[in-house]
Design goal:
The chain is an alpha/beta fold. It has a 16-stranded mixed beta sheet that branches. The protein has a two-stranded antiparallel sheet with strand order 6-7. 54% of the residues are buried. A hairpin with a 4-residue loop joins strand 6 and strand 7. Helix 2 crosses helix 10 and helix 12 packs across helix 15. Keywords: Aminopeptidase, Hydrolase, Metal-binding, Protease, Signal, Zinc. InterPro entries: M28_fam, PA_dom_sf, Peptidase_M28. This is M28 family metallopeptidase. Pfam families: Peptidase_M28.
Length: 566
Amino acid sequence: MRISVSCLLVLAALAGCQSKSTSSSEAGGTAAAPTDTTIVSPPDGITAAYIGEQTKILASDEFQGRKPFTVGEEKTVAYLTDQFRKLGLKPGPDGTYFQNVPLVEITGQPAPTMQISGGKGGPITLNYKTDYVAFTEQEKPAVALQNSEMVFAGYGVVAPEYKWNDYAGLDVKGKTVVVLVNDPGNAGNDTTHFKGRAMTYYGRWTYKYEEAARQGAAGLIIVHDTEPAAYPWSVVQSSYSGAKLRPQRADKGASKCVIEGWMTLDAAKKMFTAAGQSYEEAYAAANKPGFKARTLGGLAMSTSVKNKLRRTASKNVLAVLPGSTRVDEYIIYSAHWDHLGIGAAINGDSIHNGAVDNASGCAALLSIAKAYTQLPKAPGRSIVFLAVTGEEQGLLGSAYYAAHPVFPLKKTVADLNMDALAAFGPMRDLTVIGYGQSELDDYARDAAKEQNRYILPDQHPEKGSFYRSDHFSFAFVGVPALDAKGAFDSRARGKEYAAQQMQAYTAKNYHQPSDEYDPKWDLRGMEQDARLLFRIGQRLAEESTFPKWKPGSEFKATREKSLASK
């Protein structure tokens, strides 16, 4: 995802963007939770059966896992376009249902070792995948660093609003920077820093690579630590092997670091020892305000990456229902159509069907589109249905739309996003990722009350979910965005059952070939969520005002600047 310097300085809240002052009782705690299990389906065309039918189709083997740049993309894009056309929805302003998203596929082959020289006791050899991973966003057949001086820059964060600058007084031009995972509040022991356990954007690896490039670093290596990262080294190994999609840039990635990568905690400790320093002492210092970056005792790093490059365009798919009174104002419903395609076989299955992630969101998108077309009168504002590409590769499609909007951002009222809806029945909760950020919380609360549900803020803000789906791309450019779904409180079986179901999906099916459509699923929860977002969109469509970011939101200034522009 391509991010500007000015906007980055505004971003200070990750993983739910949840205000510290939010309490469970304020958000509608369990004491007020409804107990009935009756679900009434109004005659609006949104049904569990229709959502199931669409999910089954999009998650079938025929679509080959819906990976961009494959036959799976061609089939998916054609199917979604056909469905939008059959519903009578209009194409975009250019007369097509597409927005081309220029991407480059980089298949990197790192050197088998990373050499760290200049230390006490002789050079250190780190082995690819076992000790480190490396890659590049530079569009070159090969890149290399040779004896690049190494420095330690804490968390690699420049956050003026938190009075935190890990690069203060440090010249990293041409050097390789080593940084810690996450941010000082989220990963450290003092939760008074930043947003505490709720990760900020500064904790995201994407930000760390971007900031290092802005500082002029030649390389950036993140130290992986399982506990604060919340995932094992194996996730890093799998995430950075094989072909990766990146946005095509005018400079072909020349402004990015030559080498980006990760190293294990054990490798980092060996490196600090070789530099005559203590990792534990450096870690403790990095978690205190006023931290001063340091050189790593004359250490220098050497490694390389060879690349295969392929440039082409993927597609966002969009359709429009023109408004009746405020036709030049837009409400966007978004969901990503892509998944992981075909990979190594697991238990004899190599197709990553992505039924929950995110055929379910696309099915909900189609069901909402169907509901709008069945209204007796067109909504006041125009409704845009946007199925984006490249979410699994880093929100590429939604980020491209946000940077190249088909409809003006200052005329875009809100984005309502759908991603990986729960497949285990009606829910009592409506969990809002990013609760406390915008007035869309209030719209969500009112719509939840219609379904006898209650609001929950993100229950795991430390995971950074707010920055991991397509709503973030819209929030980033100032458009109020909502990502809300039932997740933590089953209406029939309670919280423990919901937790078991969520944990089972994450452990067994998330990003695995086993994420397949199951006819035994209870999809009434998906129906609930789709209807709730439909109702929010209906209300927004008939208003003349725009929902606002709440005071203290890091996106508020960007929106106000956008609305004030000519």
